[in-house]
């Protein structure tokens, strides 16, 4: 991932505005100032933030009970997951949702005249964050898909390759005898190949 070290350095400093500048967008803190203040508390050790935006997620079972209707959540893309934070309006409680990258199929964005939305495809369902700042949605989708591709490449290159098993001369002789018994080889062909195999012992 391009600028990975820079993202890591800015995350350590909790400089969310600079991360947005690195992505050529402005910090979208509409309705999420409280969530931005507590973001550092919800990151894992060494977790790196790539992008963040705010958007509407419909009221669900995990929403704060003191909230009504749709909630504005802080949506954060990190090197580990998608992290969503929602601070309660009347208390200091914070709801969090986390989607690990290994569960994500793809990320797409849609831009309207003023606002946009991000769709995170989980295979069995699609999570939508709506009414986001228009410029942030394409940045987040692009970075997410690029990172998912990189993680996939890393997994493939680190997975152990199954080495082709060397066939022993004895195995070869057994196969050769079976071929002669089936009538696939003449005695002359059998003896010629047999001599070559025996020479390998």
Q: Which descriptors apply to this entry?
A:
Short C-terminal domain-containing protein, elongated, 2 domains, four-stranded antiparallel beta sheet, YokE-like_PH, single chain, 7 strands, SHOCT, 201 residues, 36% helix
How would you describe this protein?
The chain is an alpha+beta fold and 201 residues long. It folds into two domains: 4-158, Pleckstrin-homology domain (PH domain)/Phosphotyrosine-binding domain (PTB) (PH-domain like), CATH 2.30.29; 169-198. It is built from six helices and seven strands; from the N terminus they run H-H-H-E-E-E-E-E-E-E-H-H-H. The strands form two sheets. Strands 1-2-3-4 form a four-stranded antiparallel beta sheet. The longest helix is centred in the C-terminal third of the chain and has 25 residues, at 134-158. The radius of gyration is 28 Å and the shape is elongated. The protein starts with a helix and ends with a helix. Mean pLDDT is 86; it is low at 59-68.
């Amino acid at each position: 991932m391009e600028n990975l070290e820079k993202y890591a350095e800015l995350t350590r400093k909790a400089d969310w505005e600079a991360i947005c500048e690195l992505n050529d967008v402005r910090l979208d803190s509409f309705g999420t100032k409280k969530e931005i203040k507590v973001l550092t508390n919800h990151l894992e050790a060494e977790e790196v933030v790539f992008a963040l935006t705010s958007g509407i997620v419909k009221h669900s079972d995990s929403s704060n009970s003191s909230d009504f209707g749709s909630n504005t959540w802080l949506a954060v893309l990190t090197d580990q997951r998608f992290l969503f934070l929602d601070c309660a309006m009347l208390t200091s409680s914070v709801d969090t949702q986390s989607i690990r990258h290994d569960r994500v199929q793809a990320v797409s964005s849609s831009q309207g005249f003023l606002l946009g939305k991000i769709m995170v495809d989980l295979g069995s369902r699609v999570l939508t964050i709506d009414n986001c700042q228009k410029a942030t949605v394409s940045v987040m989708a692009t970075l997410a898909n690029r990172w998912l591709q990189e993680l996939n490449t890393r997994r493939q290159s680190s997975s152990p390759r199954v080495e082709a098993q060397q066939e022993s001369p004895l195995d070869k002789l057994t196969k050769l005898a079976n071929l002669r018994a089936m009538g696939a080889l003449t005695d002359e062909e059998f003896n010629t190949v047999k001599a070559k195999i025996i020479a390998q012992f």
